Amino acid sequence: MYMELQKVLDKALERASRGKGAARHATGQPFHEQPIVTEQHLLGPQAALYQIRKKALESLRLPPTQAQKELLDIINYAAACFIYYDQTKEEDAPDASK
Predict the structure, then answer these.
(1) Rounded CA gap, 34 and 25, in Å?
(2) Do 15 and 70 touch, CB atoms closer than 8 A?
(3) pLDDT digits (tens, 9 = 90+) for 28-42
């Protein structure tokens, strides 16, 4: 039922782990320790959300094959933002001792 979605998510994973993301950003560390995630701890999630917006706008001007690559990058930026929020959940949780 969700095979087409799985194919797209697999392509995004491939792009991050072996494609453009690995070539430009990874230096052997896991995804959650790469700048796509860690920079958000310095700049906030706006950093990833800006990249999502920029890539979405760029995709509108590109031929379909190139646009699809930008859309895969958007998925990876969204995943990085999701991970950032996971990492900061404890910081936002109310202190039960108060």
Answers:
(1) 7
(2) no
(3) 789 999 999 999 999
